[in-house]
Amino acid sequence: MTESLLEKTCVPCQGGIPPLDPAEAERLAAQVPGWSLLDGGRRLERAYRFDDFAEALAFVNALGALSEVEFHHPDICFGWGSCTVSWQTKKIAGLHENDFIMAAKTDALIG
């Protein structure tokens, strides 16, 4: 049986490898519903809504702690009741399986 994205951990990406091709990015995106492929399939993004600023901040803090554990970090924009998370492996200027692993783990923070 194949491991789900949620069960995997990020592997260090040193660069020098190509980003995922569009077909592979689409296949992995199907495993993280609610996320959008942007910038020609080079970035993965999702917006979340919260009841207030404190909930959004708690989510951002939890995501930050998870990102430190996984050694893979998103771009985050948040404010009162909202948070947008973008994943991209900057060393390869595109998407890597790590981005999809982290998208699944980001969703898991919501429950």
Task: Supply the key terms.
single chain; 111 residues; alpha+beta; Gyrase A, domain 2; 4-stranded antiparallel beta sheet; 3 helices; 4 strands; 19% strand
3D structure, described in words:
The protein is of the alpha+beta class and about 110 residues long. It has a single domain (about 30-110), classed as Gyrase A, domain 2 (2-Layer Sandwich), CATH 3.30.1360. About 35% of the residues lie in helices and about 20% in strands. The protein contains three helices and four strands; from the N terminus they run αββαββα. It has helices spanning about 20-30, 55-70, 95-110, and strands at about 35-40, 45-50, 75-80, 80-85. A four-stranded antiparallel sheet has the order 1-2-4-3. Strand 3 and strand 4 (about 80-85) form a beta hairpin. The chain is globular and about 40 Å long. The model has no long low-confidence stretch (mean pLDDT about 95).
**How would you classify the quaternary structure?**
single chain
- Structural class of the secondary structure composition? alpha+beta
Number of domains: 1
Cα(first) to Cα(last) distance is 24 Å
Give me the CATH architecture, please. 2-Layer Sandwich
Extract low-pLDDT stretches: none
- Give the overall shape: globular
CATH class: Alpha Beta
Order of helices and strands: HEEHEEH
Write the topology of this structure.
Blueprint: H1 22-29, E1 36-38, E2 43-49, H2 53-70, E3 75-79, E4 82-87, H3 97-110
Antiparallel strand pairs: 1-2, 2-4, 3-4
